[in-house]
Amino acid sequence: MHILILGASKDSRNGHKKPQITFDYLICADGGLILAEKWGLKPNLVLGDGDSYGRDFPPDLAAINFQTEKDATDSELAIQKALELGATKITLIGFLGGRLDHTLANLFFITALKTVKFCFKEEWGEVYLAEKTTEILGQKGEVISLIPLTESVEGISTVDLKYPLVNETLFKNQTRGISNILVKDKALVRKKRGELLIVHLKEGDL
């Protein structure tokens, strides 16, 4: 089941167009409901403490209310709920940009979740974890950055990126994987050990 989760980053609320993706279930994490209303989407569930939405959740929506003082962010609570519902794929919009602490926490949180495919989508592109073999689909000339989330990522090989890697190691405290470029509309990234984040900067709609 593909679950779409909408978040509340200011960048997303101010600039996002309605995503051209299909999904089975929609969760709004607090102010993500602003995006849903903007796009004419009715969520299956809204949850949070109401601080970023700014008022009570509409009574006609299924909602789970939390206290402002809690041990998890609305983002984490939304992801946990998606997992409880049996999600096999989770797309998150409105979770990157805005507050740096929330952005970093969201990215690091997904590294512990191995059984579900995650993708963060924003107007400027998308971010996701690399698998053992990852196919990157885009357009020639778009920028691809490979960012280690563990101290090192070993055995990285790439196909159809301008600056190739052949069974190499990228380190968390270095920037070698930043700003590679697609030389075709499709590329491959393979890795052996470690957690690798792929940042794909692209033009156009989601």
Write a brief caption for the model.
With 206 residues, this protein is of the alpha/beta class. Helices cover 17% and strands 33% of the residues.
Describe what you observe in this structure.
It is a single chain. The chain has 206 residues and is an alpha/beta fold. The protein has 2 domains: 121 residues, Rossmann fold (3-Layer(aba) Sandwich); 69 residues, Jelly Rolls (Sandwich). Helices cover 17% and strands 33% of the residues. It has 4 helices and 14 strands. Strands 4-3-2-1-5-6-7-14-9-12 form a 10-stranded mixed β-sheet. Strands 8-13-10-11 form a 4-stranded antiparallel β-sheet, with no helix packed on it. Strand 5, helix 4 and strand 6 form a beta-alpha-beta unit. The longest helix has 11 residues. The radius of gyration is 18 Å and the shape is elongated. The model has no long low-confidence stretch (mean pLDDT 88).
